[in-house]
Design brief:
The complex is a heterodimer of chains A (790) and B (358). Chain A is α/β, with parallel strands linked by helices and 790 residues long. Chain A is built from 25 helices and 16 strands. Among the domains of chain A are: 339 residues, NADH-ubiquinone oxidoreductase 51kDa subunit (Rossmann fold, 3-Layer(aba) Sandwich); 49 residues, no CATH class; 62 residues. Chain B folds into 2 domains: 142 residues, no CATH class; 159 residues, no CATH class. In chain B, strands 1-2 form a two-stranded antiparallel sheet. The chains are: A alpha/beta (790), B mainly alpha (358). The interface between A and B is large, with 79 and 55 residues. The complex binds iron/sulfur cluster (2 copies).
């Protein structure tokens, strides 16, 4: 007898397995159509290789694996490809995704196929390729492509076959082991060959399946001639013994290190169903086109296991089992502990569908309202991962992500044992899922920020090099400017420059902070600074000039701006005529808009000048003018952080102006242009903010006048950052990130709703609407994403 | 086409509900309550009735003020548990206002001001008890002499007489209150001066008449021990905190028994079976809300309480100390929690709750 280890925690929910094992594995009539999702596994969706109208035979490849972690899809009967389109698929979010829809022709005709009887003489890699092309993904529930799991980099000394099936109600593996033990054992031998004959080969079964145990034992005995060292191990029934990590612990006493794969311990673990499918793929040459699925629950008149063709709509399955939809409060795919509900019975059976559970109301009454957590610790007693679910719940509620990670939230396997025992009926797992989603999103954002910081640092280095090269030139120019200034400060060109650049002064001064930051020890750079201060002083002098002079300068500025606007417009028109790409057109439009803004700005200034009270005696105005040199000087003396803050403020300003305009405009072309201009600004803003966040803290003296940002402002900034990020992403990425954030928002909203309901708060209705809205948004996003998938 | 609702897993639930947990705690107090009533008369029962009514009224009032569903929150029975525990701890025949005040303070201030069930850092019953003990030391230390130790011709007051004593009714004329009030075993031991422990035990009827330690009190404590054992069996709480507390008391009193000298701290049996030891060990420190969270944490928490109880009993100013010890360790519970997070599956060692990862 092999030593068995116990796992901490665990629960003993009513098994409810008896009702579905009375009859042998059955077959169903062909459904009127098969829905084959391209993504029935973890990893990249398969790529369709058929088109609507194509005739396909049973077992024919209809979609090929795409990338390493992927699995192919095969027609599970012969027929005609009706369409490749969006269809609801089994997923907790009730999303739709791309499916190949096949209309069976009723002939059920196989494609030519041939197995390999003498696999023992074949190269494992060749067998792995067959497994991969046969579309085999973990049938136990996770759906991880089997070929990936079987090709680990580490040497494997233990192969574990999982026949635990610890979830209540499900008997698919049980029946498979009872009725087809020979195929399982043959499959195990193939796996052993591929893995280089590991020293230990174990089949783990819970002791509530004696028939399966006996059947396997007999199969092993009759098969022992092939040099058998397969060990059959049974152990006490307890949920969740069948979790991969838990089973490994039970059979070997080892724990899979957090965040690692079992292969690191030299262990590979496969479900009995997967093993059998591999046997069929290798020896018979049959790809994965069917699986054993339990149909059970009191809303079904018949509770039984079927060998179901993949793609069979759940509705078809239910219809053949006397399903009473009215008595069924929820339809579950998988078991009662970890299964998810199906909204739409049209979803197909896929590779991971081990059970369709249609309970009656008495069987699964709606969950009572959650009561407060009394910290009784029953959840911790039940947790197989030795977590403290009550603490996780507490910190999930308060969104204390540091604490959540310190309490190892990510080691939660979402088994639901804690929620099952919680006397207060708190939907704990829901909180954990939401919190995990949120933390993941935050982490992704951080990774992105880190990337751009690196980019920024490279950029900085380059600039510094360039700066050194330019230093000499600047020195010369400074001398020239000084002598020129000595001759007369009211030089016309100076005034023009001052007006034309007035809107840009702040941003140009801060464009590359390090370029203008005082660089100790480099006299050249210092000279540059003085240079700029001088120029600013000169401009300030110029502003002090008489109204007439200022008007003249402004008018010249307007003239220049108008000219620029005309020329950019011309360019845009040319571009449009030349059918330039949309991207370049957008750029041009943005340029036009830029010019327009500047013109408007200049005109505004002129108008202001014309107002009677706007003259030199205006104290604010003049002080602004005289102060400008000091401001520039100050800006240059400022730390890079302050400069960036200034820059951000300026950009924000501009964004606000543009947005204002955007709101007022109706003309589509201009709108587009404005939008793209806006995007550009936002991008700049994001860059500046990233630079700001990238700055080491110590370069910032106490923030001089750091504005107290209220929550709203912060939210706006975040939204803008997001917009900027979105602008840099591909449409696919955009959709995905959008979807991610939506889902995490939805989870959060649901959790809030649950709390609100529990507390009977006033805003329950509002929250409910939010949840509904979010749900529809998620669905929309998913649809879009799916559409973009191929 | 019918769409089915979307519900998150798990789809099943164990039959256990919070109100059932509370109900079992209430049931488990019965043996102790019977022993108290047998030895000290109707007083404790009256305490409990008064306390329960007050607690229900306070809880309902606060819930109504907080605009929460009153019935839903009363149905968790947690207010009743607080009331019953405080009723058990207060001296029998305590005046009605004492009970009212203690319970109101426990429910309104110690529990609801902190956010209600699950959010209170301090054990409400013990907060109520300590507030009373500090404010009304005389009333709080007036105990009853056990029925069978009463002098000849004196008996415990009957139900009506007890009500007359407790409620603002005309006092019973045929009753000399002084005749049946007396010290508790711990109290009298504290005032032992100079006698060897053995001598003291022999000369004091409270001890000399007892089977194990402290006449009457031993049965009360055994009653609570029995109820606690049943709760343990029902897995309402784990053994860690009670076992650690009792072990700490046993160990310390064993060490400081000092062979029964005149400065002895008293025998382990006396410490285990007198005062509120068992009530505390199985009904007070097992209050999950205010105790430490992990099993290791509860060991530390329970041991801390055991040590504090002993220290205050022997060297402090109060004859008994469960309430103070519990409150002090309530303070420490969050800190204990930070350092006693269990080792998670797949991790080489346990982490502190305060570590930050970046
Ligand atoms: S089981 Fe429920 S009530 Fe008890 S501590 Fe855990 S979350 Fe809180
Ligand atoms: S769902 Fe997570 S926290 Fe709850 S028992 Fe399972 S592993 Fe533990």
């Amino acid at each position: 007898m092999r030593k068995i280890w116990d796992i901490p925690g665990g629960i003993h929910p009513p098994e409810n397995k008896k009702q579905s094992v009375d009859q042998s594995i059955g077959a169903l009539p062909l459904p009127d159509r098969l829905v084959l999702p391209l993504n029935q596994h973890i990893g990249a969706p398969a790529r369709p290789v058929v088109k609507p109208g194509d005739r396909v035979l049973k077992g024919q490849v209809v979609a090929e694996p795409h990338g390493i972690v992927s699995a192919g899809v095969h027609a599970s009967t012969s027929g005609v490809v009706e369409s490749i389109s969006l269809h609801p698929v089994p997923h907790p979010s009730a999303m739709s995704s791309n499916c190949i829809i096949v209309r069976p022709d009723g002939e059920d005709r196989w494609i030519e196929h041939q197995g390999i009887a003498d696999y023992g003489s074949r190269d494992p890699q060749q067998l792995l390729d067959i497994i991969r092309l046969s579309g085999i993904a973990g049938l136990g529930g996770a759906g991880f492509p089997a070929s990936v799991k079987l090709g680990p980099r580490q040497p494997i000394d233990t192969l574990i076959i999982n026949g635990t099936e610890c979830e209540p109600y499900i008997t698919a593996d049980d029946m498979l082991m009872r009725e087809r033990p020979g195929e399982i054992v043959a499959g195990i031998r193939i796996l052993a060959h591929i893995l280089g004959n590991p020293a230990n080969i174990l089949i783990g079964i819970e002791d509530n399946k004696p028939e399966a145990y006996d059947a396997l034992e007999a199969a092993l005995a009759s098969n022992s001639s092939e040099g058998s060292d397969i060990e059959l191990v049974d152990f006490p029934t307890k949920y969740p013994s069948g979790g991969e990590k838990q089973l490994i612990q039970i059979l070997t006493g080892k724990e899979v290190p957090s965040g690692k794969l079992p292969a690191e311990l030299g262990i590979v673990c496969h479900n009995v169903g997967t093993t059998q499918a591999i046997y069929r793929a290798i020896v018979l040459g049959e790809p994965l086109i069917s699986r054993i699925t339990t149909v059970t629950g009191q809303s079904c008149a018949i509770n039984r296991n079927y060998d179901v063709l993949l793609g069979t709509p759940v509705r078809h399955l239910l219809a053949n089992n006397g399903f009473d939809a009215d008595s069924c409060p929820r339809l579950i795919m998988g078991g009662p502990m970890m299964g998810f509900t199906l909204e739409n019975p049209e979803v197909p059976v896929i590779k991971t569908t081990n059970c369709i559970l249609a309970p009656s109301r008495e069987e699964m009454p709606p969950a009572p309202l959650p009561q407060p957590c009394i910290r009784c610790g029953m959840c911790a007693e039940a947790c197989p991962a030795s977590l403290l679910p009550q603490q996780l719940f507490w910190y999930a509620q308060s969104e204390n992500f540091d604490r959540l990670e310190a309490h190892n939230l990510f080691d939660c396997i979402e088994c639901g044992a804690c929620a099952y025992v919680c006397p207060s009926n708190i939907p704990l797992v829901q909180y954990y899922r939401a919190a995990k989603g949120e933390i993941r999103t935050l982490k992704q954002e951080k990774i992105k920020a880190d990337h751009s910081r690196q980019r920024f640092e490279f950029h900085k280095e380059r600039l510094e090099r360039a700066e050194a090269e330019k230093a000499a030139k600047r020195e010369a120019r400074r001398r020239a400017t000084e002598s020129a200034r000595a001759r007369g400060a009211e030089d016309d060109s100076g005034i023009t420059a001052s007006v034309a650049t007035s809107t840009e002064a702040s941003s140009t001064a801060a464009t590359s902070p390090e370029a203008k930051a005082p660089e100790a020890g480099t006299s050249a750079a210092k000279a540059t600074v003085e240079d700029i201060i001088m120029a600013a002083k000169a401009r300030a002098e110029a502003r002090k000039a008489s109204p007439e002079q200022r008007r003249a300068a402004l008018e010249r500025g307007i003239e220049a701006a108008r000219h620029r606007l005309d020329s950019t417009r011309q360019k845009l028109a040319d571009g449009e005529a030349d059918n330039l790409g949309e991207a370049s057109l957008d750029k041009l439009r943005a340029a036009v808009e830029d010019a327009r803004v500047k013109l408007a700005d200049a005109e505004g200034k002129l108008a202001k000048l014309d107002l009677p009270d706007s003259n030199d005696s205006d104290p604010a105005d003049s002080s602004r003018d005289t102060g400008s040199a000091e401001r520039v000087a100050k800006k240059l003396g400022d730390s890079p952080r302050q400069q960036l803050q200034g820059k951000i403020a300026a950009i924000n300003n501009r964004i606000a102006v543009t947005e204002q305009k955007l709101a007022e405009l109706t003309d589509a072309a201009t709108l587009d242009a404005l939008r793209s201009g806006l995007d550009k600004q936002r991008q700049k803003l994001a860059e500046a903010q990233q630079q700001l966040s990238a700055l080491p803290v110590d370069t910032a003296p106490a923030p001089v006048e750091s504005p107290v940002q209220d929550a709203a402002a912060a939210a706006i900034t975040r939204a803008r950052e997001k917009a900027a990020r979105l602008a840099q992403m591909s449409p696919e990425e955009k959709l995905r990130s959008n979807l991610d954030s939506l889902v995490s928002r939805l989870d959060k909203a649901r959790a809030r709703l649950a709390t609100a309901i529990a507390e009977n708060a006033d805003h329950v209705e509002t929250l409910r609407t939010t949840v509904v809205n979010l749900e529809s948004k998620v669905r929309e996003a998913e649809t879009k994403l799916a559409q973009g998938d191929h | 086409m019918t769409l089915f609702p979307r519900v998150t897993s798990p789809h099943g639930h164990a039959p256990q509900r919070t109100d059932q947990v509370m109900l079992r705690v209430l049931l488990a107090t019965l043996p102790g309550l019977v022993a108290l009533t047998w030895n000290f008369g109707w007083g404790t029962l009256i305490n409990i009735v008064l306390a329960s009514a007050t607690a229900t009224a306070c809880e309902a009032g606060v819930m109504a003020l907080r605009k929460r569903p009153v019935r839903f929150y009363l149905s968790d029975l947690s207010a009743l548990v607080t009331a019953v525990l405080l009723g058990l701890a207060l001296p029998p025949l305590a005046p009605w206002w004492l009970v009212l005040m203690g319970v109101a303070f426990a429910i309104v201030i110690a529990k609801q001001f902190y956010g209600g069930l699950g959010y209170n850092p301090f054990n409400p019953a013990m907060v109520g008890y300590v507030v009373l003990l500090i404010s009304f030391p005389i009333e709080m230390t007036t105990w009853i002499t056990p029925r069978e130790l009463l002098p000849e011709g004196v008996s415990l007051p009957g139900l009506w007489q007890s009500l007359q004593l407790v409620l603002p009714l005309p006092a019973p004329t045929d009753l000399a209150v002084d005749a049946f009030t007396g010290a508790t075993p711990l109290d009298s031991f504290k005032h032992n001066t100079g006698l060897l422990t053995e001598q003291f035990y022999q000369q004091t009827p409270l001890f000399s008449e007892a089977e194990l330690a402290g006449f009457g009190w031993e049965w009360v404590n055994l009653g609570f021990l029995a109820g606690g054992g049943w709760l343990l069996y029902q897995r309402i709480f784990t053994w860690h905190a009670p076992a650690a507390m009792l072990a700490a008391i046993t160990l310390l009193s064993g060490i400081f028994y000092d062979g029964g000298s005149s400065t002895s701290a008293g025998s382990p049996l006396m410490h285990l079976l007198s005062g509120a030891t068992m009530l505390g060990a199985f009904f007070i420190i097992t209050d999950p809300v205010t105790s430490a969270t992990s099993n290791l944490g509860r060991l530390i928490y329970g041991a801390g309480i055991g040590i504090l109880v002993f220290v205050i009993r022997v060297w402090g100013n109060y004859p008994d100390a469960v309430a103070f010890a519990v409150l002090l360790m309530n303070f420490a519970a969050p800190l204990i929690d930070n350092y006693t997070v269990p080792r998670t599956y797949g991790h080489a060692r346990a982490k502190r709750a305060t570590v930050k990862k970046d």
